[in-house]
# Entry
Amino acid sequence: MTRYWISLLVFLTGFIFAIFLTGQSFIPLINLPSFITVGLVPFLFVSVLFGFREMKAAYRTALQKEPDADCVLKSQGFFAVFGSTITRFLKHYGVTIFMFIYLNSNGKYEFYSIEAFKNKE
# Structure
């Protein structure tokens, strides 16, 4: 558990350092569609597959000191599926963002505009 907190502290320190290094605030870095696509949608997708009761049991098993073998196997399966789901949604979102940037390579980035879908000449 200590490794988790140390790795989280290192990540947050690096993130805050990167923000201060650029001289910007963190508000432009918050992209709500990416948080929904990569965070919320995979969570809901996995909740349909496993159910909230099984998800709660998997997280509870991960925090127990001596869980039984059956719970560990179920928890391991849940986290494997959850991790692969997040990875697949992340890849899908990355390809989608790349396509929007490529299609709008005329100097204006119009990701949130309907103009991105129109044929510009």
About this structure: The mean pLDDT is 80. Residues 90 and 120 are 29 Å apart (CA to CA). The two ends are 56 Å apart (CA to CA).
